[in-house]
Write a structure and sequence with these properties.
4 helices, elongated, mainly alpha, single chain
C-alpha cells in the first residue's frame, strides 16, 4: 500500500512532460475530424425537414391537394 501511494505521489510531483505526436497520431486526428464533419452533414440532411419545420414554426405537415373526384363531390 505504501509503495503504491509513494509512486503516485512521485509521478504527481514530476515536472511537465513533453508531448509527442507521431505521424500516425496526426492521421488519426485528421480522420476523426473528417468523419465527424461528414457525420454531421449526414445527420443534418436526414433531418432537414424537421429542422426547417422547427424554425419556421409550422405545426403540421403540408396537406395533400384535393383530388378531382373530391372536388366534384363537394360541388355536386
Amino acid at each position: 500500500m505504501f509503495t503504491n501511494l509513494h509512486q503516485i505521489i512521485l509521478v504527481g510531483l514530476q515536472g511537465p512532460t513533453p508531448l509527442y505526436l507521431d505521424p500516425g497520431s496526426g492521421s488519426i486526428l485528421l480522420q476523426t475530424l473528417i468523419a465527424a464533419g461528414l457525420g454531421l452533414i449526414f445527420v443534418i440532411r436526414l433531418s432537414w425537414k424537421k429542422i426547417k419545420r422547427f424554425f419556421t414554426g409550422s405545426k403540421t405537415q403540408e396537406e395533400p391537394q384535393e383530388t378531382v373526384e373530391e372536388k366534384k363531390e363537394d360541388a355536386g
